[in-house]
Amino acid sequence: MLPAASQIFSAHLMAALTELEVEQAFLSPGSRSQSLAIAAQQLHDVDRLTLRVRIDERSMGFTALGAARATGMPVAIITTSGTAVANLLPAVLEAHHSGVPLILLTADRPKELRGVGANQTTNQVGIFGEAVRLCEDIAAPVGDVDLDFVRALAEKAVSVAMGDFTHRAGPVHLNICFKEPLSSLTPDAADVYTGAEFPDEEPQVPSFAILNGEVNTVVVAGAEAGMLALEAAEAFGWPVFAEPSSRCRYGANAIIAYAAVLAEDQELTNKIQRVVVYGKPTLSREVQKLIAREDVELIVVRSELTGLFNPYGNAKEIVDDLTVNGEVSSEWLARWRVASHNWISAQNYNTGLDRRKVIELVYQASQLDDAIVLGASRMIREADIWAPSKPIQVFANRGLSGIDGTIATATGIALSSEGAFTRVVLGDLTLIHDASSMIEDPEETINLQLIMVNDSGGSIFEKLEVFEVVAQGTFDRIFRAGQKIDYWSLANAYGFVYFTPANEQELLDALATPGRVLIEIKL
């Protein structure tokens, strides 16, 4: 049997991707994508690629997202045609808004079968809209496959996904049509080397802001702000208001209770004259009010991950980096540190298990090589209030701030963490929404803990205007939406060890348990 053109194409494409530092791939089984799946498995068998199989494309998309978040490297996703592709959309949107590199390899029927009623066929080209950095519609390979084209396609896909030319990493979409025969055993992708390499990137001249050091300045570090925010704050003596997923919520410049001080100490807040923003801040209304103030000079530092942040259109400068002329008063930082310390000291301390205690104990239990994943909605905001200063990796899907895919994202992070603990702090609705992602991978053991704060539904809505507008019964039905779930049975069904700690020590014991663990905190 002669090698199928589809298999020749797929073997060379997948081999080229591995030569371009694509180390992980995820696939969901399907017929039209079989040549891609075979090639990926062949590369997996010789340790050129780590291939993982997931039966649900929606969950798979978020798992790949988590793996790419954890490593910073592009991850390939393989699907068959039809609704399989559509199920990737939530993860693709999050990847787009968070600057996460994904390479979507979606198999398709031949182009002539579109729009004529052919089975499992829709127009997949452009299905992700502006959420992908690149969309290529590739005709079905037949006859002699143009191997130079395949190599160049892989080079282009990886370079664009990594943001080499756009300076904004993100997902790319290769929609590949296949005609029968859809696969063959040869060529073996493990024997293929294409010589693929990264194209030369034209150097860019970064833009700088030169700032007056005498102006009272604070750094706002939103999601994915990274070390640049902390380095600037420490270099220039500025307070840094760091969200938990900023990766820089530690050190002497980190103001833990920044949101409370902004809300309650108007004298100090009104003295802010300049805000420098890194990343994408989304958690605090007080920060949004500060950024929108007309009397505050707003400087935004570009992010290759989260993209442009200028929601009120009032940024004075949008730059790549900055420097300062003149001395910065040490008293300015000291005042913010004292104000934060005083606010925290004044809060009543509950000896029972409440949201504050859960956040504090999860951070206490986590070592520096562990990861914390915060679900959207209530618990990430609790972490923004109570999370201590600690240099630990904290992840959250803040691109679009949805609760979808939280467990799957954490699973991808755990799979990339080489035995460290991945602890997910989430609410009951966030867990239920992605419960199908709790399914066990029989080939790999991970230390994944789901710390679920069960407050019977969407308690976050209690902090919004609607709570004062509608009757309690109406609120409970259409906003809180509490569910009746037996979480012991749920954990047992998916092979999780289940704990319901009643006190601090029991929670610490549960947090020390390796493997896959569900911890229910009943409020």
Automatic annotation (TrEMBL):
GO terms for biological process: menaquinone biosynthetic process. InterPro entries: MenaQ_synth_MenD (IPR004433), THDP-binding (IPR029061), Thiamin_PyroP_enz_TPP-bd_dom (IPR012001). SUPFAM superfamilies: Thiamin diphosphate-binding fold (THDP-binding). Keywords: Magnesium, Manganese, Metal-binding, Thiamine pyrophosphate, Transferase. The keyword Transferase applies. Pfam families: TPP_enzyme_N. GO terms for molecular function: 2-succinyl-5-enolpyruvyl-6-hydroxy-3-cyclohexene-1-carboxylic-acid synthase activity; metal ion binding; thiamine pyrophosphate binding. Residues 11-125 form the Thiamine pyrophosphate enzyme N-terminal TPP-binding domain. The keyword Manganese applies. NCBIfam families: menD. PANTHER family: 2-SUCCINYL-5-ENOLPYRUVYL-6-HYDROXY-3-CYCLOHEXENE-1-CARBOXYLATE SYNTHASE (PTHR42916), PROTEIN PHYLLO, CHLOROPLASTIC (PTHR42916:SF1). This is Unannotated protein. It comes from freshwater metagenome.
